[in-house]
Design a protein that fits this description.
globular, Udp-n-acetylmuramoylalanyl-d-glutamate--2,6- Diaminopimelate Ligase, Chain: A, domain 1, Protein-Tyrosine Phosphatase, Chain A, alpha/beta, UDP-N-acetylmuramoyl-L-alanine:D-glutamate ligase
Length: about 500
């Protein structure tokens, strides 16, 4: 049985610029509806409870705030919410059907599909949608750090020649990734899916849903330790991607990471390696920091090489570029297109993004997320900036580190002290541990400070600027985990 779809054009793919009728959350088709009732029942294994049997649905929607007439409302449940509480609202807004795990108390005029678990049903719907896209290539990316940047870079490279679907933002968990994959249509050539997790089994489920053709593990580091105990637990969880990929798939392997190498060694699939090692198929040599202008390096893929300048800051983004280049290479992109794509890619919001403050002060917004490895990378990047001017580091908590939190924050503080930054401003539950680490390395108590909240930090920075203690050419780094919302500091300073 096939999804309602557009008639194929030429080789079955619409190229960039071709016309198509679009509606809803990314679906593109000529024929409405996209989903039939029988397809939903087949995908989910659910039980039809009541309603019209001839019904069809435009989109799958899990949030009534975004629901449009004709959508199929799927009622997710969690620790702090229950989508079934919003069924009445979904009906008022024109839902054409319901997928629920709690049978409605009264008869409904629209089709109601009863399932054991709505989160599982969401993934099953996305898996079904992907399964009927026989021409689609799915590229999956996971890792402790860099995965969002690699996903964005890879999608950017492919989008120059092809129609690409990608996960938006950090929609990479058991809810976000299926929602990102559901809009896939016959006009898409590639889907680039980011996979995140904080406990064992999640990557395995995401891999089952997306059925990737090409898979990359960027690295294995200390992240999400609260649910995985230690870095070996992280490796096992990330390795679920390689373990679950189809036999004819391709693994993109960070040859510089011993744990990633070990995970790949267990697999028989084709492998493309990337890294600084001379043994890597996709590698970088002659790496040079250009300060705030980015990085320069020689990209080599097999026997081909070219000098490349990327706009992204830091040596870690050279490695991210190699991962994206390897993904593009695995997908069949030409070497020249990979080079042009890397040079054209611009850093996206909250990822080592340089903002100009009043008076010519440069603020590096790296508030997207944080773990020990990404913190170190950001600090090292800042250290390579202009040595003639002051450098201030503003750090929030690194979350989900469990029993390792105290030691990890102390180590980051010690690194700040060792690198001799001019000021350290901290906020959060582990701010004192960060400052203590810096003080142990000889940083002055007058320059390593704990603040009660982010507003106090903004006020301190503003005062320093007014007193000319901060001036043109000075640098400010702002970084912390997503839950810390450190961007409120950058927003406050930009408003000032």
């Amino acid at each position: 049985m096939e999804l309602a779809r557009a008639g194929k054009i030429g080789n079955g793919r619409l190229k960039n610029g071709d016309a198509a009728t679009s509606f809803g959350y990314g679906f593109t088709t000529i024929q409405d509806p996209v989903w039939t009732l029988s397809q939903v029942l087949m995908a989910t294994g659910g039980r039809f409870v009541c309603g019209r049997t001839e019904a069809g649905f435009r989109r799958v929607c899990t949030d009534t705030r975004n629901l449009e007439p004709g959508d199929l409302f799927l009622a997710l449940t969690g620790d702090k919410f229950n989508g079934h509480d919003f069924v009445a609202e979904a009906m008022r807004k024109g839902a054409a059907g319901l997928v629920v795990s709690q049978k409605p108390e009264k008869e409904m005029s629209v089709p109601v599909i009863l399932v054991d678990d709505t989160l599982t049903a969401l993934g099953d719907l996305a898996a079904y949608r992907r399964s009927v896209m026989s021409d689609l290539q799915v590229l999956a990316i996971t890792g402790s750090s860099g995965k969002t940047t690699v996903k964005e870079m890879t999608a950017f490279l492919l989008a120059k020649e092809y129609n690409v679907l990608k996960t938006e933002g950090n929609f990479n968990n058991l809810i976000g990734m299926p929602l990102s994959l559901l809009p896939v249509g016959y006009h898409h050539d590639f889907a680039v899916m980011e996979m995140g997790m904080n406990r064992p089994g999640e990557i395995a489920r995401l891999t089952e849903i997306a059925a990737p053709d090409i898979a990359c593990i960027t690295n294995v580091q200390d992240a999400h330790l609260a649910g995985l105990q230690d870095v070996n637990g992280v490796a096992r969880a990330k390795g679920e991607l390689f373990a679950g990929i189809k036999a004819w798939g391709t693994l993109v392997v960070n040859i510089d990471d011993s744990r990633v190498r070990a995970l790949a060694k267990r697999c028989r699939q084709k492998k493309i390696t990337f890294g600084k090692s001379p043994k890597a198929e996709v590698r970088a040599t002659r790496v040079v920091s250009l300060g705030e202008r980015g990085m320069s390096f020689t990209l080599q893929i097999g026997q081909k090489s070219s000098r490349v300048r990327i706009k992204s800051l830091g040596a870690h983004n050279v490695i991210n570029s190699l991962a994206a280049a390897a993904m593009g290479h695995a997908a069949g992109l030409k070497f020249t297109d990979i080079v042009k794509g890397l040079e054209g890619f611009a850093p996206f919001e909250k990822r080592m993004q340089v903002e100009k403050l009043v008076g010519g002060i440069k603020l590096v917004n790296d508030c997207y997320n944080a773990n020990p490895s990404s913190m170190l990378a950001a600090l090292e990047t800042m250290q390579h900036m202009d040595h003639k001017h002051k450098k201030i580091v503003i750090l929030g908590d690194m979350l989900e580190l469990g029993q390792h939190s105290d030691a990890a924050h102390g180590y980051i503080g010690a690194t700040v002290g060792k690198l001799k930054f001019d000021y350290l401003l901290t906020v959060g539950a582990y701010a004192e541990q960060v400052v203590a680490g810096a003080l142990k390395m000889g940083m002055s108590p007058k320059k390593a400070m704990v603040f009660a909240d982010k507003k106090e930090i903004t006020a301190w920075l503003t005062k320093m600027i007014e007193k000319d203690e901060l001036s043109e050419g000075d640098w400010v780094l702002v970084k912390g985990s997503r839950g810390m919302k450190m961007e409120t500091i950058t927003q406050g300073m930009l408003a000032e």
